[in-house]
């Protein structure tokens, strides 16, 4: 997680301000669209035709990083000039500047906060619903882009949470499953072990669907995702969250055992060494009754798995560690 | 920036040359950070400027060079980040937030300038009260946790930074500490760890925040130290470094979040300290200074301070002692908190 910039992209702010580049990028970023943009930044290895600021094909947008950097310099200057002394007519300009700033630097808190103020400014207006949905599209575009920092940005996820809260306050519907499949899972895919994406999902479920995990059909989607991303500890952690019996009244012991059995069988068949998988399995095995009775005791599973990794010290360590943890933490739960 | 590579020669300490802690290069690296205002990166990191100053200053203290940054300039800069509401933003003109507010207090304590805050501070009541009132207003009085700012995001990191700042100002009685402790207890997961809120994924950084907050509240007794100690000790990978969660890559900053957590619960000996030391030292740039997240990557001040703090916890003889709860020099914490 090094925050430093590579030398190729370093640009001196003494260069003349490329206002045209800024205007063009603002025009493409800030125009409302039916289909959200899919944004990518291009490095030096992918030059685009000279004279062009970006490549746009349908909703696929590719911007050379060097151009974005130049636009950022302009955006930042506009922001400094207008912020805290902003007249009504210039609010839109300031908001456009924040779009460019956040594309370059997703952690810019003040830029994101300004966008929140802008939303609130329209709260009593007729267009509030439209304003909200445009802003949600904006932040979702950045959260699902092929941009390493944006998909896990605490600032952007926090902004999204605030927006969804505004939806709720305005009594608009929140489609939890839709948010999950179209935004959270994409961000989770783009950035492995995406703590903030999965935290956001927990919040969505807690706030809007805490007794409906089963009803909404979320569990099979989560389980399927985990099986396709077995090295992703956050995915498995979220699966555990869905199976947390004390907090999820819909779920019964048998439901948990079923999931456990399926995943354990796959782990053994595919000879998975992933620590994420075994941490998940040991936690379920230790916290739920009757996994022994299901014919798949954790102890036996570990023994079977160890045989597949006779020459792999690292995996043996993972497995033995899991066994030890299970033994120390297993609960006797009355069924 | 060149980093470590190749076999080293044995140095006077018996270690190969690249496995010794350099001092002057790190000092020079930190001193140079504010002088690059014509570089893009300076403006790209504006959103964490004050935090960066705290990281740099703490690192200098640990390196035994507490006066390496100009004191009055530091104080003036910190005070210029304060908003009218008493909170501090990351840079002048930036919105106030609890994270940068905590950094501001920590910096002022380290340069012994709380009196200047008393004279020139903004917010309700001015001085220490101005900042303290800003922090106190961010506590959720129903649940005990803290929001980061007026926009309401709650996170155990904010709970920690809230108590950190208030305790350094001796104004903890402005908030409900017992309720905060109860909130942290509700965040304890089955695996022994803690996350951002109840039921969240266990994460080393969040674990540090929860433990440090409990430490400030003198309530570490509520922690299942064996369970948590085991989870934390599993963060050490074969090469010696520490990661933050299962199956993630090792990263120098976890040398702090994990090691300080283990220290607070008395289980630092559950990891291999010498292997970790070697890992951190390999992450240095011994010529140009600074420490990176892992060997071969570019250095930055964030990883520099946490690498050094980790080494200090492990008892490195060339470093000042660090306080595991505050990530500040132990000597200073003892002076302030007695």
UniProtKB/TrEMBL annotation, chain A:
UniProt GO MF annotations: protein prenyltransferase activity
One Gene Ontology cellular component: cytoplasm
Keywords associated with the record: Prenyltransferase, Repeat, Transferase
InterPro entries for the chain: Prenyl_trans_a (IPR002088)
Similarity section: Belongs to the protein prenyltransferase subunit alpha family.
Protein name, entry field: Protein prenylyltransferase
Organism: Glarea lozoyensis (strain ATCC 20868 / MF5171)
UniProtKB/TrEMBL annotation, chain B:
SUPFAM superfamilies linked: Terpenoid cyclases/Protein prenyltransferases
Names of the cofactor(s): Zn(2+)
The protein's enzyme class: transferase
Any GO molecular function: Rab geranylgeranyltransferase activity
Cofactor note: Binds 1 zinc ion per subunit.
One Gene Ontology term, aspect cellular component: Rab-protein geranylgeranyltransferase complex
Entry keyword set: Metal-binding, Prenyltransferase, Repeat, Transferase, Zinc
Reaction catalysis annotation: geranylgeranyl diphosphate + L-cysteinyl-[protein] = S-geranylgeranyl-L-cysteinyl-[protein] + diphosphate
Xref: CDD domains: GGTase-II (cd02894)
Domain Prenyltransferase alpha-alpha toroid: 23-328
Domain of life: Eukaryota
Similarity section: Belongs to the protein prenyltransferase subunit beta family.
Purpose of the protein: Catalyzes the transfer of a geranylgeranyl moiety from geranylgeranyl diphosphate to both cysteines of proteins with the C-terminal sequence -XXCC, -XCXC and -CCXX.
Protein name per UniProt: Geranylgeranyl transferase type-2 subunit beta
Species name: Glarea lozoyensis (strain ATCC 20868 / MF5171)
């Amino acid at each position: 997680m090094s925050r430093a910039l590579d030398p190729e992209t370093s640009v001196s702010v003494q260069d003349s301000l490329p206002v045209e580049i800024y205007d063009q990028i603002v025009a493409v970023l800030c125009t409302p669209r039916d289909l959200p943009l899919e944004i990518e930044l291009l490095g030096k290895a992918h030059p685009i035709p000279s004279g062009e600021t970006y490549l746009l094909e349908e909703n696929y947008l590719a911007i050379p990083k060097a151009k974005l950097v130049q636009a950022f310099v302009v955006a930042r200057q506009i922001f400094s000039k207008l912020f805290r002394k902003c007249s009504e007519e210039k609010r839109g300009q300031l908001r456009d500047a924040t779009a460019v700033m956040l594309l370059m630097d997703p952690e810019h808190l003040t830029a994101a906060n300004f966008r929140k103020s802008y939303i609130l400014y329209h709260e009593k207006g007729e267009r509030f619903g439209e304003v909200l949905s445009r802003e949600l599209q904006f932040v979702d575009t950045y959260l699902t882009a092929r941009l390493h920092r944006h998909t896990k940005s605490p600032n952007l996820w926090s902004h999204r949470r605030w927006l969804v809260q505004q939806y709720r306050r305005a009594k608009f519907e929140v489609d939890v499953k839709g948010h999950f499949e179209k935004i959270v899972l994409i961000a989770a895919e783009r950035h492995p072990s995406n703590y903030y994406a999965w935290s956001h999902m927990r919040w969505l479920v807690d706030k809007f669907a805490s007794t409906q995990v089963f009803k909404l059909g979320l569990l099979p989607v989560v389980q399927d995702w985990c099986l396709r991303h077995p090295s992703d500890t956050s995915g498995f952690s979220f699966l555990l969250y869905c199976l947390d019996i004390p907090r999820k009244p819909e779920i019964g012991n048998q439901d948990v055992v079923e999931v456990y059995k399926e995943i354990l069988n796959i782990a053994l068949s595919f000879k998975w060494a992933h620590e994420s998988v075994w941490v998940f399995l040991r936690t379920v095995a230790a916290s739920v009754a009757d996994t022994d009775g299901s014919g798949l005791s954790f102890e036996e599973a570990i023994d079977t798995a160890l045989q597949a990794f006779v020459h792999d010290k690292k995996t043996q360590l993972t497995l033995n560690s899991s066994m030890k943890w299970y033994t120390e933490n297993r609960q006797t739960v009355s069924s | 920036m060149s980093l470590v590579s190749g076999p080293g020669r044995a140095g006077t300490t018996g270690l190969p040359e690249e496995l010794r802690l350099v001092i002057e290069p790190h000092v020079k690296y930190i001193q140079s950070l504010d002088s690059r205002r014509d570089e893009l990166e300076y403006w790209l990191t504006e959103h964490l400027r004050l935090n960066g100053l705290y990281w740099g200053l703490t690192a200098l203290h640990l390196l035994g060079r507490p006066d390496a940054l100009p004191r009055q300039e530091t104080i003036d800069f910190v005070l210029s980040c304060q908003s009218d509401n008493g909170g501090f933003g990351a840079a002048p003109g930036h919105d106030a937030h609890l994270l940068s507010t905590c950094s501001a207090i920590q910096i002022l304590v380290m340069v012994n300038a709380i009196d200047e805050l008393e004279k020139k501070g903004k917010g309700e009541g001015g001085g220490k009260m101005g900042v303290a009132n800003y922090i106190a207003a961010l506590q959720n009085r129903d649940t005990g946790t803290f929001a980061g700012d007026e926009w309401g995001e709650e996170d155990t990191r904010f709970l920690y930074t809230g108590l950190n700042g208030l305790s350094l100002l001796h104004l903890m009685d402005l908030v409900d500490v017992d309720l905060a402790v109860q909130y942290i207890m509700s965040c304890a997961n089955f695996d022994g760890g803690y996350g951002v809120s109840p039921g969240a994924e266990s994460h080393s950084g969040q674990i540090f925040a929860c433990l440090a907050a409990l430490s400030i509240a003198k309530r570490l007794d509520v922690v299942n130290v064996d369970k948590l100690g085991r989870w934390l000790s599993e963060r050490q990978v074969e090469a010696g470094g520490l990661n933050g969660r299962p199956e993630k890559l090792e990263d120098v900053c976890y040398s702090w979040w994990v090691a300080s957590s283990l220290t607070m619960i008395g289980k630092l000996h559950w990891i291999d300290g010498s292997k970790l030391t070697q890992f951190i030292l390999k992450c240095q740039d011994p010529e140009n200074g600074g420490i990176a997240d892992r060997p071969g990557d570019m250095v930055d001040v964030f990883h520099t301070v946490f690498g050094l703090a980790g080494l200090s916890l492990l008892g490195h003889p060339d470093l000042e002692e660090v306080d595991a709860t505050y990530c500040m020099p132990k000597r200073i914490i003892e002076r302030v908190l007695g």
